[in-house]
Amino acid sequence: MSRPIISPSGPIVVLTGAGISQESGLDTFRCAGGVWSRVRLEDVATPDGFRRDPALVQEFYNDRRRGLTEAHIQPNPAHHALARLEREWPGGVLLVTQNIDDLHERAGSTHLVHMHGELLKVRCLRCGEIGHWAEDVTTDTPCPHCHRPGGVRPHVVWFGEMPLEMDRIGAALDDCALFVSIGTSGHVYPAAGFVSAVRQRGLAHTVELNLDPSDGASMFNEAQYGPASEIVPIFVDELLGSI
Length: 243
Ligand code: BV8
Prior knowledge:
Elements lengths: L11 E5 L2 H4 L18 H4 L2 H6 L1 H15 L8 H12 L4 E5 L5 H5 L4 E3 L2 E8 L5 E3 L19 E5 L9 H10 L2 E5 L11 H8 L3 E6 L11 E4 L2 H14 L2
Parallel strand pairs: 1-2, 1-7, 2-3, 7-8, 8-9
Antiparallel strand pairs: 4-5, 4-6
Helix pairs in contact: 5-9
This protein binds ligand BV8.
């Protein structure tokens, strides 16, 4: 399908997944050698796994938190292109990411929802406080707010837990003129269902930008395949060039 003219006053929703951060040096989950090829998600990304072995889960996220804060992990041209789109698209852009890294923020995106939480935040099970945390967490770490030990967990949405800001996301999907899915396998719900929610309204153009066709590829009006750091800047240039 050729791309219709997208009115510059039309709001855009962008969904990103691990693929947008792959060229920055962060592993994806389901590609060869990905995170779930090394650990069972049931052991490290579920409430039951945390109850069974909290130290294992804390170490899984400590390892990823240390990796994210290494100097060579930087936003790539795809992250920067989306920050530029937010700055220059008149109709507004909401960036919904499944990623828990902070590369979108570091590239300059501000209209941003981390629907699966954030690796650099922790939540206290005792007082509920959520705060920035870039160090290791152990089962004894005292909460930086209430100072009680043993209740600090990653502020991350595990399987079986409700993703964050779903009302805000749903309203944006209802209102958008363009929905763009970038770097996600379309395997995890409810994020994987966003494209069909948009299509049901029938008012928005839907685009997939990915390395390979996702599970939901057939749901998109348009698709481009290739590395995000190459195809996302080109896509953004075309969009901004149409204003
Ligand atoms: C919930 C934790 C409900 C943080 C993650 C139907 C409806 C609702 C729920 C379900 C449903 N069916 C099943 C469910 C349950 C479940 C689910 O979806 N299971 C799956 C396995 C079938 N969903 C849930 O449990 C969700 N919660 O629904 O709650 C509820 C209702 C009432 C009360 C309570 C609850 C919660 C889901 C969140 C789980 N947490 N992560 C962390 O540790 O990171 S999800 C996990 O997968 C990741 O975090 C990531 O966010 C997510 C998606 O992965 P992708 O980002 O897509 O990465 P992937 O590796 O799969 O793919 C990478 C893609 O990039 C590939 O396509 C590749 O081609 C591409 N790529 C690679 N390199 C590049 C590239 N593209 C471009 N350039 C490149 N260079």
